[in-house]
Q: What sequence folds into this?
């Protein structure tokens, strides 16, 4: 009997084959570009090259706490795109001073230009393409319909913000609802009167203007400090969520650091689906007693560890075994990584 108590179970390395990624890490490739000022060719204010790797380090620290085996790797040099005099489309410098948060038409234009003219945009079709400009006050990215991320120079070292935008890239909405943003001073409009849906089962209802007590009162009819620890954790999962607006700027200054298990499931399915080109290796889910059609996604998991094992390719793949009992006698003859979600216990064997 093999009892596994932590979310990182073991890395199975057998048959002497060299694993492509020895410690069972799924790499997500990032390609960063910085847009030059069309007036004088200068860089966006606040940007330095070292900001980018600092942000990637910060993001990888977060990914480590999420326990899914993902890591970001910057695959290209930080390219300069655009040039002096490039005021007009499709020159990338056209987008130097534009705040993409407020100008959706320009966002669509930039994506169209980048896809049509990949060379001047240094487009990497096998990576997440992230552009630094001066006009953005934060970052922009949308869910899988959009292909690029734009981050303002003043945020170029803010790893949590890069991760927020990459969260959108992997199909995550804001916790307070997909189309809701900042807590506005006048607190009017539907994003301020009732929680919207993020389509994620384990995030409590949320409004951007809410603090911990408001989230707690709405879900549990009690103040945060009067809740048992399991419910406090649920409140913190939202209040400290990377995809929330409780951080600085337009929020309450919360030190956002979390994604929930269901958010990570959505991320994983998206990484295996529409964003497949950006990563190496994939995750297969296994859940004891799962029925229906089983393809190893988070919503249609396999019911046997053996099926996850059979689907996984030697080297880079992860079998994510949800909590439960799996009375299987298993032989592993190729390298793969077995994990359980955070806080779950899976028991394999007779
Ligand atoms: Zn956002």
A:
């Amino acid at each position: 009997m093999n009892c596994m108590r932590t979310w990182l179970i073991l890395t199975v390395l057998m048959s002497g084959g060299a694993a492509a990624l020895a410690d069972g890490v799924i790499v997500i490739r990032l390609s960063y570009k910085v847009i030059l000022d069309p007036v004088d060719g200068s860089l966006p204010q606040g940007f330095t090259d070292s900001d980018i790797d600092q942000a990637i380090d910060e993001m990888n620290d977060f990914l480590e706490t999420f326990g899914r085996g993902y890591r970001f790797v910057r695959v290209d040099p930080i390219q300069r795109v655009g040039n002096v005099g490039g005021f007009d489309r499709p020159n990338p410098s056209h987008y130097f001073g534009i705040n993409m948060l407020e100008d959706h038409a320009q966002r669509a234009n930039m994506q169209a230009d980048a896809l049509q003219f990949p060379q001047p945009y240094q487009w990497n079709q096998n990576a997440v393409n992230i552009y630094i400009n001066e006009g953005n006050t934060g970052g922009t990215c949308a869910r899988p319909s959009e292909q690029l991320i734009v981050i303002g120079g003043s945020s170029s070292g803010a790893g949590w913000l890069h991760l927020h935008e990459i969260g959108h890239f992997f199909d995550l909405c804001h916790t307070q609802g997909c189309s809701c943003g900042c807590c506005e001073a006048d607190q009017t409009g539907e994003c301020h009167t009732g929680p919207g849906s993020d389509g994620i089962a384990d995030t409590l209802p949320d409004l951007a203007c809410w603090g911990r007590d408001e989230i707690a009162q709405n879900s549990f009819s009690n103040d945060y400090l009067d809740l048992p620890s399991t419910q406090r954790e649920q409140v913190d999962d939202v209040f400290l969520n990377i995809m929330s607006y409780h951080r600085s700027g337009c929020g309450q200054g919360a030190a956002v650091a979390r994604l929930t298990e269901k958010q990570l499931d959505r991320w994983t399915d998206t990484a295996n689906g529409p964003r497949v080109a950006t990563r190496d290796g994939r995750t297969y889910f296994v859940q004891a007693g799962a029925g229906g059609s089983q393809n190893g996604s988070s919503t249609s998991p396999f019911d046997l560890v053996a099926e996850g094992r059979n689907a996984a390719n030697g080297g880079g793949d992860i079998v994510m075994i949800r909590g439960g009992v799996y009375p299987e006698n298993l032989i592993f003859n190729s390298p793969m990584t077995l994990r359980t979600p955070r806080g779950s216990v899976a028991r394999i064997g007779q």
